[in-house]
Amino acid sequence: MNKLTPPERIDKILKYLDLTADAFGKKINEGKRSQVIYDIIKGKAKSITTNVISKIENTYPNKFNHVWLLTGTGEMLNNNGNIINNVNSDNNNNQIITGVKGNVNIDTPQKEDVLKAKEIELLKKEVELLKKELELLKK
Known about the structure:
- β1 (84-89) and β2 form a beta hairpin.
- Strands 1-2-3 form a three-stranded antiparallel sheet, with helices on one face.
- By secondary structure, it is mainly α.
- Helix content is 50%, strand content 12%.
- The protein has six helices and three strands; from the N terminus they run αααααβββα.
- α2 packs across α3.
- The protein folds into two domains: 6-79, 434 Repressor (Amino-terminal Domain) (Orthogonal Bundle); 82-138, no CATH class.
């Protein structure tokens, strides 16, 4: 599996979204000149900061794979944009997952996997909150 550099990742995002660096920077609220985006593209920035990643994720919720944004490994897009919003049981004790693209019924033997997936999503959100808190403390 190839690992994309930060400039390659930003370039791939720009091509996918069909945006210029300037338009993308403005869209994610990175300022009028989008200097941070240009610095990443030109290789002046060694990484895509968590601040920029948060802005990308806030502008394009559930679209881009967080690990890919951070490391350049894996798939650029989240799997079909699905994300678990809620897990409930129906009258037959089957799991019903409510996601961005609708509901999915899961048989009882897979309940443990569903709970793990939900826990992972909660942990991802907690990590993001901690990152934001760390950024605030650094200021």
